[in-house]
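Subject: sequence -> structure tokens, single chain

Hey, anyone have a minute? Need the predicted structure for the following. Not urgent.
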Amino acid sequence: MNRIAGPLAAVAAFVVAAAVGLARPADPVPVPPPATAGHTSVVCPVTTGASSVAVAGATADLRQSGLSDPGHAAALPDAAVLPASGDPLRIAGRRGAVFGASSAAVGDPSAPGLGAISCPLAQTQAWFVGVHTGPDARAHLVLMNPDAVPAEVNLTAYGARGQLAAPGARGLVVGPNSQRVVDLGPLMTSSTPLAVHLETSSGRVAATVQQQLFAGTQSLGTDWIAPSSPPAGTAVVPGVPAGAGSRDLIVANPGDRVARVRVDVLGPQGALTPAGADSVDVPAASTAVVSLTTGLRGAGGAVRVSSDQRITAAVEARTPGAAASVDWTGVPAVGAAADALVPLGTPASVRGTLTLANGGTAPVTSRVEVTQGGRRTLAREVTVRGGGSVSVALPSGAQPVVRLSGGRVAAAVALSGRVGSINGVGTVAALGAGQAAREVAVVNDPRVGS
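Reply:
Had a minute. Here:
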């Protein structure tokens, strides 16, 4: 990976400006996604080979249908793992209920390595941080339209040297109840990681980037890049995997002023600022990449980034070893949630570690419960100090369902395990009731389909 010199080390959520020495802008008020017919839907991407979709929601009246065939919805049990390939799956839950869904690809020849993602909502905009489009990478933007009207998508790309021209990246039409896959390489070639802003001029889409990295002709793994939280004065990246290998923070500053950034590593004892990371400048309309490998020292957990401008971020983690055994994952910045369900369709050979991160100043207590096969295998109250994080190893065994309730935390599950000869790694973010199944009042919006 090409790196921009300069230390950095974390992503910020709730930071006191006086402590950071920055005048932080107000965070934007999130706009709740539209919902229809009493249900909220997420759309789960799948590979062309063997992948699975895990769903859970005890009181959510779960339903499943293919993206292209919404008229044939089937009821689902409270928790299930569904085999899937080809057509993305639409998972619907009762509006206002907590439910979750994630896609996983483990040992799929068409997508080497361990791939995992929380299934995204259809929205009118999204931010993807850490997209590679150089000669040693392939990046395909997967646009999934769950509505009965077309959607039109416009893309803006930011790199180390500013905003890219990206001809052909506007006016991308996605038909009703259909998927469109866009090869980003010809649109926005760059030797350094990009931040890609997706915005619709009509309709809405659920989107992800399927990214494959190479060393020459040898694959270094395939994963989905999940949307990061929208630009704000602070961002928190939970679920950074522990262990050897590189860890790189990518920060995107889409504004027209230089962003002065501070990076903190959040751990059980609180926040730690690596040497030189208390004040790092990110140019306007640009991205910056800084190695966190030394700052994290093999520890997992969370990273916080704070700035006097609105920024967003992600961490890229790679496993060590020869090229044939390496894998990677992108860890997005996520917002805090009080209630969340994270179902995982992974086999017993893949272990998970849940990280709860608190970007604020006051302690937060959250309850963690894990069920497997309908049996509760873990129940624990976790208190996370202000500016800290706590990691909880999930019980061994296949297909765990993680439930969070109580205080608002940013959370994600880091996954690791052998996938054939590959040291697999992945991340699934916790998108709670505030981010994935919010009950909203339906309003007439000409940009959004019914």
